[in-house]
């Protein structure tokens, strides 16, 4: 399992916005300094906006800013906005499972347990934790 570039760049952009929370809107160019091409970043910020994690401010001094405080945005919020819901196996994901053995699978309980634990861990890490490096204190 590996996080995609989309997930990583989305997280980088959100950390940047958290570091500048309260300073007003940040330009696309400033956010792109985290190493993301502006054209790609614009797409990512659109997804984050649709997930109600960022808001846009129009005008000469406009840009992007968090829609709520860094303490109220979790790693799971961000990664699900970028990647979709996380599950270790199709049989425990949302919607219909393509697996014919879903009801009788001896490993399904393991996938459910691990998926729940991983999502719980992502829920316990906020943007505030990330920018203050409080990751050891969240678990």
What report would you give on this structure?
With 139 residues, the protein is mainly alpha-helical. It has a single domain, classed as Arc Repressor Mutant, subunit A, CATH 1.10.10.10. It has six helices and two strands, in the order H-H-H-E-E-H-H-H. It has a two-stranded antiparallel sheet. Strand 1 and strand 2 form a beta hairpin. Helix 1 crosses helix 3 and helix 1 crosses helix 4. The longest helix has 17 residues. It is elongated, with a radius of gyration of 17 Å. It starts with a helix and ends in a 7-residue tail after the last helix.
Quick structural gist:
The protein is mostly helical. Helices cover 47% and strands 6% of the residues.
Give the total of domains: 1
**What sort of overall outline do the alpha carbons produce when their principal axes are compared?**
elongated
CATH architecture: Orthogonal Bundle
Oligomer: single chain
Radius of gyration: 17 Å
Structural class: mainly alpha
The CATH class is Mainly Alpha
CATH superfamily: Winged helix-like DNA-binding domain superfamily/Winged helix DNA-binding domain
Q: Strand content of the residues, in percent?
A: 5-15%
The main β sheet shows up as: 2 strands, antiparallel
N-to-C CA distance: 21 Å
The ordered string of helix (H) and strand (E) elements is: HHHEEHHH
Give the count of helical stretches.
Answer: 6
Please report the total strand number as a whole number.
Answer: 2
User: How much helix, percentage-wise, in residues?
Assistant: 40-55%
